[in-house]
Amino acid sequence: MRFDNRLLDDIRARLTLSDLVGRRVSWDRRKTQPGKGDYWACCPFHEEKSPSFHVDDRRNRYKCFGCGASGDHFRFVMETEGLSFPETVERLAEQAGVAMPAPDPQAARREHKRASLVDVCELAARYFQEQLAGQRGVEARTYVNKRGLTPQTLSEFRFGLAPDSRDGLKKYLLEKNVPEEMIIEAGLAIKPEGGRPSYDRFRGRLMIPIQDERGRVVAFGGRTLLPDGQPKYLNSPETPLFHKGVMLFNAHRAREPAYKSGRAVVVEGYLDAIALHQAGVHEVVASLGTAFTEDQILRLWKFAPEPIVCFDGDAAGVSAAHRAIDRILPVLSSGHSFQFSFLPDGMDPDDLIKEKGLAGFEAELAGAQSLFEAVWEREVSVARLDTPERKAALEKRFGELTGAIKDPLVRRGYQLDIKFKLSNLFFQAARAQRQFGVTGGNGGGKQGYGQNKSFGQGKPYGTGQAVGGSHLPGGGRVQVPLGPHHGTERMICGLCLKYPYLLDQHLERVAGIGFSDQLHARFRDVLCRMADPAQALSAEAALREFDEPLQQLLAEVTEVSAEDGRARPTGFSALVQRFPLLKNDPPEDFVEAVFLHFLDVLELKRLEKVLEEEMQAAEADLDETGWLRIQGLSQDLNRSREECAREEGELAERGKKLRQKPAAAAPMQQPVNSASRAQASSHGGHNVHAATVGHPSDVQQGRAVAPAGEYPGDYSGDYPEAYSGDYPADQYGDYAGDYPAEYFPDYQEEGAAPRPNASGEGDTKSNESVGPAFADIPPPF
Predict the structure, then answer these.
(1) DSSP per residue over 144-202, as a string?
(2) What tens digit of pLDDT does each residue of 544-590 get?
(3) Do residues 491 and 502 touch, judged by C-beta distance below 8 A?
(4) Which terminus of the chain has fewer CB atoms gathered within 10 Å of its CB, N or C?
């Protein structure tokens, strides 16, 4: 429906935007100037501590300078309450006292017909409620009491009873002067062929009204009370009021709680939704037993950016999830996705609430999988990887799925993430064949869909350790790299593999950075060829380029030893061990800032090397041109050092705050991948260059903080004695290399000089010499 601009302007003129927005936010008294119509508050669309959300009453506009959200009266109500534009105009017009224009005659007739049908459904709802409360409702009341439904819930959801009578409802409505044709059109009666009389559609059923987003009864769902009654659940047919593929049960109640909590929970049946609502999960809706449609998906995204689909863990629930995934993928867009939570086999939400309470249900939701993980597990759990043809078939299948995604940014993220994960999967499968003679089986070692939250955790692949110079398949051992910056280089390799979006976003810089170790450079080159759209190296082709040293490096990046001595792929546990803040699931802009800082460190070292070469050349022959070149390099180097140190301090402070947050309960499972980053990109992000760690004495005395352990203090000179020396391989492996001793707070080399404190004196309290940001960071790879 189109609305005249004069109507919209009239509504804006009568409703002050600050009054409308003020129902959702608290104005900042220091920045707000009511006399000028200038208001500031913390944004209602994202979490923040400093007010960056601005409302200008003179222009009737709002804008958040943090997330970029902007609009007027109508946009604000649509975004905060999930209403459509016509619904928003109608609501605001009522609040403003503005008369809505009369619709055209045809639209008026359609609306009158719908209103009449709504009245018929309302009469039917009252009839069903009366039957439940009367003598006929004894059995139904026993059933609802057995399910634990309270009188308040029965009243809130308007439970009723359709008696086991051929035409009880029909007679009731005819007595209320409702035409028989309208009863049939509302879906309440069935007209058989052959001229026989019509009869009630719902008989012998517990009745639950289905309400639209305005709270009007438009249809019904009935659960049979007869022992042999079929079907078990019966919904109203399609009517002018009720379109099953568009509506969501309980949407009108869930919309406001979903906005406040930032979460929406989707279940299969309306009784599950009612049980969760009674338990306190008010942001719950049900899909009315149908496979997701595009309309339902778009409606759910108005409730929350990533609704949680909570299905049973049995075969029916898994099948429903498969259908939902196929419907969701094509309409994925930046900033919107879904999560999937599979309940224990044989349990539905109602059973789980009764057995474990609300806390148990919330624990299940906390372990929900991302859509990306659900797609991955669905395909990998049934794949066989024992031949090149089967590997190619799996890669082709993923290509077909990701190719259906219309949003190019999201599609690129999924394709890159899957390519990297496939290369790792193929590598693990090949190792399993070599070591254990495995010739078939599925690629992920799954015992069933949704049963294992992290790829590969259910099946061992190796027999050795994978961290710190440990023994690898075939008796190999990852040797200590010869380059002077191997710690930083290997961290870059690990982050590229775990967070492919970093490589995708900074491909040119990563490809052009100078690595001092040839093994790392080769590893980086293969990853870049996989990420480069121009080359598009497939996962299977990439695996063929991984010779034994690169395979050993790949194994070290992706595995960690278990207590039983077997190595298992555990979601980049080795990387998490080296970068402990990853356990806290840090924001993606923080991870990106650390990654960029590591690149800055290598670039800074390159400048130092160039300057050193120029100085050496100048000793033999120094002219004016050479001197100017040396001066320019020195200035560039000093600026880079200052910038690196400044940004490092900022990141160190931020890392300190992140360390104070409790670590995520679930194991790390690639919490930020290219796909999720692409879906979130529309909400903005920060590209902060920062560093990592410094000695407390440097911080206390105002000296530059040493980034990533590559160089202490003023970024030059040799390490003090206490910052060097060998570390026991059985504790830290072979990779103490270029990291200072403060990275190993629990080890003080016997006979080494005490570590200096702020005053320059010896300090035997080694645990206090830990840097502020990554104090517990273990040695590099």
Answers:
(1) HHHTT--HHHHHHTT-EEE-S-SSHHHHHHHHTT--HHHHHHTTSEE--GGGPPPEES-
(2) 777 777 777 776 666 543 444 343 444 565 677 677 787 777 888 88
(3) no
(4) N
Question: CB-based contacts of 270: which residues, under 8 Å, 6+ apart?
Answer: 208, 210, 221, 249, 250, 286, 288
Lookup: tokens for 142 = 């026993």
Q: What angle in degrees, to the nearest 10, is found between the helix axes of 294-303 and 251-261?
A: 50
Largest alpha-carbon pair distance within the chain? 113
Q: Provide the pairing of β-strand 339-342 with 308-311.
A: parallel
**Residue whose token pair is 């049980």:** 275
Q: Which residues contact 617 (CB under 8 A, 6 or more apart)?
A: 626
Give, to the nearest 10 degrees, the angle between helix 518-531 and helix 548-558: 80
Enter the tokens of residue 473: 């398949």
What tokens does 567 get?
Answer: 């190595």
Q: List residues bridging with 762 in a β-sheet.
A: 756
Structure-block tokens of residue 352 = 């789980």
**Among 39-48, 466-475, 653-662, which is the least confidently predicted range?**
466-475
Prediction pTM value: 0.65
Contact 757, 638 (CB under 8 A): no
Percent of the chain as helix, strand, coil, to the nearest 5: 50, 10, 40
pLDDT digit string (tens) for 52-101? 999 999 889 999 998 888 999 999 998 888 778 888 998 899 898 888 87
Nearest to 370 by CA among 430, 421, 408: 421
Burial of 165 (C-beta count, 10 Å sphere; 0-12/13-18/19+): middle
Q: Which of 203, 401, 339, 265 is nearest to 676 (CA)?
A: 339
- Look at strands 755-756 and 559-561 and give their pairing: unpaired
Residue 560 CB coordination number (10 Å): 20
Structure tokens, 425: 């999967």
What residue type is 615 in one-letter code? M
Residue type at 145? N
Q: What's the average model confidence in pLDDT over 33-41?
A: 90
CA distance linking residue 604 with residue 715, whole number of Å: 10
Distance between CA 711 and CA 732 in Å, rounded? 20
Give the tokens for residue 206.
């517990």
The sheet carrying 233-235 orders its strands as 160-162, 205-211, 217-224, 233-235
Q: Where are the beta strands (DSSP E) in 243-298?
A: 265-267, 284-286
SS3 category, 275 = helix
Q: 692, 353 in Cβ contact below 8 A?
A: no
**Residue 536 in tokens:** 């598009």
**Identity of residue 109:** R
Report long-range pairs for 93-99 (Cβ below 8 Å, ≥24 apart).
93/7, 93/11, 95/15, 96/10, 96/11, 96/14, 96/15, 97/14, 98/7, 98/10, 98/11, 98/14
